[in-house]
Structure formats: C-alpha cells, structure tokens
Design a protein that fits this description.
This protein has eight helices and two strands, in the order H-E-E-H-H-H-H-H-H-H. By secondary structure, it is mainly α. It folds into two domains: about 35 residues, no CATH class; about 70 residues, lambda repressor-like DNA-binding domains (434 Repressor (Amino-terminal Domain), Orthogonal Bundle). The chain has a two-stranded antiparallel ribbon. The radius of gyration is 21 Å and the shape is elongated. The two termini are about 40 Å apart.
Amino acid sequence: MKKEEVPQDKSNLESANFKELCYAVDENGEYTTVNSSGWDPKTIALNKAIEDINERVEDAKQRVLNNQTSPIEYYMEFHKMDLQILASYVGLWKWRVKRHFNQKVFNKLSKKVLQKYADVFDVSIDQLKNIELHGN
C-alpha cells in the first residue's frame, strides 16, 4: 500500500489520541512507517470482540449471583483471561482452577489460595468473595 493510501478512518483509537503504526511504500518505493487513525473493517471487528467480552463478563456475573459458579470465573472473564492464563498466574494446574469455579469448592478454599487469586485480580479477598463489592 502506498503512503497516501493508508486508511485514516474514524476508530476507537482516535478518541483515545492513539495512532496505529503501519508500513507503507513511499514515493521512492521504500518501506516507511505511517500513522493511521483507523480502518473501518478493523474497527468493526474490534467493536464486535469487545461486545462479546462484555457479554461473557455479564453472563459470568449473573451465574455468580445465581450461585452457579464462583467469583473466580467472573474475575477471569473481567480481566480478559482464559483458564490457561489464570492457572499460570496463580501457579496451579488448569483442572484445579476449573474446580475452583464450583461454588462449594470455592467456599472451602484456604486463605492462602484465595490470596493468590486476589493478588492476580488486584482485589481484596472480600472483593473476591463478593463481586458486588467490585466497582466496575
């Protein structure tokens, strides 16, 4: 793509005063970098991804409030993590973290294990146990 053809469409990046760095060919045929404020297809895809994440967070929140899962699943979704990433951060096997999604198992977790989760999610143990205390 030529330097003057780099898209400058309105995007979420623009409202935050960010520019995306793109590579383009200048008038001499050399590669150069150009700032782009956005590109409509990319903006649409990004907005859809953010919408999907927000739906998963809200779904997890409702399952916690209905005692169908533990707050760990909510915080994992809220922080845009998956099971593997969360397990690596808390230093536990994936199957153990998934087991902690069970409300009965979660209620029996030691303070030490709860603190690991609280540290990863940057919340207190009280906030971890009660998502209604989490100001999001």
